[in-house]
Amino acid sequence: MAEAPPATAGPTPGPAVHELLAAYRNGSLTPGAHVRRVLDLVAAHGDDGTWISVDAEAALARAAELEATPGAADLPLYGVPFGVKDSIDVVGWPTTLACPSYAYEPRETAPAVQRLLDAGAICLGKTNLDQFATGLNGTRTPYTVPRSVFGGDLVSGGSSSGSARAVALGEVPFAVATDTAGSGRVPAALNGVLGYKPSRGLVSTVGLVPACRSLDCLSLVVADPADLRTVLDLMVGVDERDAWSRPYARLDVDEHALVVGLPDEDGLTFFGDEATADAHTRARAVVAGLFRTTATSLAPFLAAGELLYSGPWVAERLVEFGDFLSVAHDDVVPVVGDIIRGGARFAATDVFRAQYRLAELKAEVGRLFASMDVLVLPTIGTTFTVPEVLADPVGTNTVLGHYTHFGNLLDLCAAAVPAGTTADGRPASLMVLGPALSDDAVLAVATRLAAHLPTSAPIEESR
């Protein structure tokens, strides 16, 4: 039995992709040896709510196959283990969406995941999530409820809870997640790692069980910003089976010429959490020291965010899961079932009214981006403990998504970047947002911020 690792009070990432590749190529490590180490680490962590399924035999067999294949060592992800959120199809693992009675065996691996496998990566297993990807807190699962790696019974965030934890615990250097309302960014923020939501349509969503089909994105969680660019480039590609797919041309970005929008401080809220407000103020000062900045309004962004759950988009979940819910309602987490059923209250007229309002807000946001390249704001305004979320599951969830809900509605791309901790040791995170197809600008800003912001120590202590 593997010895239990020490408790963490923050992320403890393992080797990055480029470090693993270097070790494999200089002969100091093999994929098989590393996979065995990872499996021992997963076993030592125990049933902590990170994974729904791990297939040790398949992972070791894949490592052995790669080691025996001539030329495989030149693949860009040769022998690199990773995790996949259990709402995304991977042949060999059931897709459960954290609802065992919903589970099915996929006949095809999601194309974006297949690109990673073709590049030499090793899928370790499927990660935990808020059931049916409905939630931003991580507690809505019939499996073990995960906690943030920062301890204190803090929620892990969701819905991609397991993907963020697997990276933060050093079990994998990256994990594939999803993001509809912040599901990839909020858990990254709450576990002190990076989360990236690409522009809608750059990464195929074929093989993803949709939450809101018109908004869903596959996203990435990583510990090292260099890995973000490496893995994303492999996943991007037009897919004619994805109705929202669109091409992307890399941009030549001069990061020193970029203008960063900072919202008026009066427009920010931290829900009474002064420690998180102070951490954000310190991080914001770092932004101002690195980039040209301009003041901007956050009002149209927040107005769009209010449309997501108060508007008709919630009915998309009813389209996808309504039939299952009608026959298996006892198998669904109660708050998830209530949210899905709530989509029935909207009429066609509500859809059009919301679309008209969203179009107005998109135009207003577009005018704001004419004077800035990206916008930087908090990823989360406060944190909650598991008991606090269970006592008020809807209210706390809404607060966690305050700064993320509008991202896909407004067709933005976004990165969550660790920004140290609060004075009492809770995670802080900055979010970089840009218009659709400005991914290279967002990544440039996020990468530069990651190099200058601490990952898990208060900013003033790192200077």
From TrEMBL:
Residues 45-443 form the Amidase domain. Coiled coil: none annotated. InterPro entries: Amidase, Amidase_dom, AS_sf. Pfam families: Amidase. It comes from the Bacteria. PANTHER family: GLUTAMYL-TRNA(GLN) AMIDOTRANSFERASE, TRANSAMIDASE. NCBIfam families: PRK08186.1 (NF006043). This is Amidase domain-containing protein. It comes from Microlunatus spumicola.
